[in-house]
């Protein structure tokens, strides 16, 4: 039990797919202007990832190695289409705000990465737990970035006013920059810095080491 | 047309304002020459795949497109994503084979980057945006070339800066990925200065 719990909690910080493996940032940041869109996309990704991992793990002995990628992509893309259609049917406004980014879950490296690296070699139950954990790790990063951007960019969280705006007679002047693209990159960069300061194991080794000549010993 | 082209390169840069193709963008931007290779390969694939996907979408997938088959009520729009992924993957394979056969020199320098692009969000995303914004054939061709050039420009800029940063003294935890993000943020800010600038 403890081990399966670890499969879920590991990807949250120690093996976070975004900050450690640099997976799945494509399409992740564009939806972080508000918490609501980030939450919807994260939920969609977790569902797609978990179901895909379970399905692929179930048929892993029947997939020929040479065509395994195309089989996985087809399964994932079909699930994404289902998720997209469900969103359009039941949350049309949200699906308009997410525009093409729901479809882009299909090309998200986390999904293909986890099914390829884990689900192809493990039984369905651990695969789904691993998928759930990685999805949650991705969602965590997305939600942190989205909360910062929405709070400081618009003074709200999930649409509820937190900081009283100057326009409404309060004291907070919203930072419009937070709602533009550059801030997402910079916040994520600082987030990576924070995580790596807490977990020095994740730091990258230097490619270039300054040349230090050996000091001549005076006789 | 020129406005669309310019917007695709600067204002609506796929990498810097829509965060597309980020995995490749960060992974292969450590050296300038590899970044240049990926950039050129992406321009090539993007400028073929967007118009091609437009043709497919207009004549096979969109609502009422199958009238010529006697099926005016069929809407295959939901098959868009699966079709685009298949087309791009197939296209990359064909380009690879053609280059290998007719331009072995170019193949040797670009060949290893082409498979990376088979499932790149920038390429799929470009095609999906083309459908969402309802471009016609000429516009989608211009859009394809423009977004390709914009993405290549972004990755080459980042690679050039990262090559210099290798000699800089950066805090331990910020080195590599963290710094790449922050530099990208600054490049993105610089690119957003082009908003509203028009040549003509």
Automatic annotation (TrEMBL), chain A:
The chain crosses the membrane at residues 22-55, 67-92, 98-115, 136-163, 175-195. This is NADH:ubiquinone reductase (Na(+)-transporting) subunit D. InterPro entries: NqrD (IPR011292), NqrDE/RnfAE (IPR003667). GO terms for biological process: sodium ion transport. One of its GO terms (molecular function) is oxidoreductase activity, acting on NAD(P)H, quinone or similar compound as acceptor. Pfam families: Rnf-Nqr. One of its GO terms (cellular component) is endomembrane system. It is a multi-pass membrane protein. The lineage of its organism: Bacteria, Pseudomonadati, Pseudomonadota, Alphaproteobacteria, Hyphomicrobiales. Its main location: membrane. It is found in: Endomembrane system. Keywords: Cell inner membrane, Cell membrane, Ion transport, Membrane, NAD, Sodium, Sodium transport, Translocase, Transmembrane, Transmembrane helix, Transport, Ubiquinone. It comes from the Bacteria. The keyword Nucleotide-binding does not apply.
From TrEMBL, chain B:
It is an enzyme of class 1 (oxidoreductase). One of its GO terms (cellular component) is Gram-negative-bacterium-type cell wall. It comes from Arsenicitalea aurantiaca. PANTHER family: INTEGRAL MEMBRANE PROTEIN OF SOXR-REDUCING COMPLEX, NA(+)-TRANSLOCATING NADH-QUINONE REDUCTASE SUBUNIT E. It holds the Pfam family Rnf-Nqr. This is NADH:ubiquinone reductase (Na(+)-transporting) subunit E. It is found in: Endomembrane system. It is a multi-pass membrane protein. One of its GO terms (molecular function) is oxidoreductase activity, acting on NAD(P)H, quinone or similar compound as acceptor. One of its GO terms (biological process) is sodium ion transport. Keywords: Cell inner membrane, Cell membrane, Ion transport, Membrane, NAD, Oxidoreductase, Sodium, Sodium transport, Translocase, Transmembrane, Transmembrane helix, Transport, Ubiquinone. Its EC number is 1.6.5.8. The chain crosses the membrane at residues 35-56, 76-98, 110-129, 141-161, 173-197. The keyword Glycoprotein does not apply.
